[in-house]
């Protein structure tokens, strides 16, 4: 912002043009998949970027087949519960890491980081074997538990970065002004911590919503199969028909919530995903 | 140790315990179990043939051409996508840093590839390059069946990775750019340094730590590539990545012994990459733990 005055007109045009190109590049596949989803089956092969006709037949097809609605419900439930659990446990841990002096706080953060970088393929074999025996294969709980390999580290990192920036002394000040510990916590600390908790929840949800490796390895039916897995395994109505239209329509349905969340909370998401990587 | 200190430690561990135990239970324990399984002949289709065979699984993986092919495929995808992402990410970051009117719009647009489900992104690009449904051939006048040949399939896969993950790189780099003191850039400008000199002599060296962390994250992430390859080629046309190899052995062929050996080897590769970065480029991750 402070560099404003240094810019000449030509420089501003240069960066403006650059912005346009970036936006176009980022959005092309999104427009493409929307356009594809609106084509009539007969027009799917016309190769046009913008659909000549608008038809909702693929949306009807996707929602009349039991596969996709089940997957959508599974995805919402599994990602939602995973998020709640991770943020809850992450909050306790992050509070201790930021507020309490104890040996091992560095170790916990380092472990979380190491686990976040862990290749999921390395543990699907054992999990597949154990979940089969324990009856957790193809269940919500089995996936929710598994998702903790990435939801917990993410929650702990984001939350401890946010908690660190909270002026905790305000709590003490409220106490001096006569508030009880509980009042001080609820009236002062909770409002300060809420945005960070919310950000962590958004990012954790996005990661859980995106998972594919665990979903296809640890589920097999509509009982727990999530959207990414369902989309990848969509079958056409006949063996020779590519389910292109259905895949496109399903893709649009699961991308719209992401676009809405991004539009509403872009600032928070950026803050959340850069904390920890860049020193503040 | 004072009693107060003691109770503080206890409270801290009590608060951390659920998260730590859960993480270890679903990550460390399965990893150890994978190592254990990798020492056995254990094929779920022939469960009665279960026996301890030591390092034989490793020998057969390391002795197979398929493993080395998959490893080199994965390295090709990783190096190509991460290096293009770094350059492109810098361009995007500079645009966001300098663009005044469109900054918010650019940032919002970039979050969409970041947030979109990887499988969906891979599908969108697969259809885009498809010879019958796609617009790429129609617009460019080309005729290729992109995903039916090895190097063009690699191109589509890498291209998808770049589209999906450059935003992450760009946003990290943008955060790093804002830490470069404006006065320093201005002073260099007064002293007659041109834009290129200013970028390479001042901005880049000051951003080294951020760049290194971004590269480390992205390299480890790219190395475990699975979704895009699975959706676009399933590993056909010689594009199989190591994660696909592991998945095929474990889930498709139910060979838990051999598949676990692949899993352990992938894990070792990730550790080696991390060590190369942290030791080789002297990344100080611990410094980020306190602000």
Condensed summary:
By secondary structure, chain A is mostly helical.
Please describe the structure with a list of short key phrases separated by commas or semicolons.
heterodimer; A: 280 residues; mainly alpha; MetI-like fold; 2 domains; globular; B: 291 residues; 12 helices; 2 strands
Question: Can you walk me through this structure?
Answer:
- The complex is a heterodimer of chains A (280) and B (291).
- Chain A has 280 residues and is mainly α.
- In chain A, helix 2 crosses helix 11, helix 3 packs across helix 8 and helix 6 crosses helix 8.
- The N terminus of chain A is likely disordered.
- Chain B has twelve helices and two strands.
- The interface between A and B is large, with 106 and 108 residues.
Sheet with the most strands: spatial strand order of chain B: 1-2
If helices are DSSP runs of H or I spanning 4 or more residues, what is the number of helices of chain B? 12
Most residues in contact: chain pair: A-B, 106 and 108 residues
Q: State the low-pLDDT regions of chain B, or none.
A: none
CATH class of chain B: Mainly Alpha
Q: What is the element string of chain A, with H for helices and E for strands?
A: HHHHHHHHHHH
Q: State the helical fraction of chain B.
A: over 70%
Please describe the biggest sheet of chain A, giving its number of strands, its sense, and whether it closes into a barrel. Answer: none
Q: The CATH topology of chain B, please?
A: MetI-like fold
Number of helices of chain A: 11
* Total beta strands of chain A: 0
Helix content percent band of chain A: over 70%
Strand content of chain A: under 5%
Rg of chain A, Cα atoms, Å: 23 Å
> What does the overall shape of chain A look like?
globular
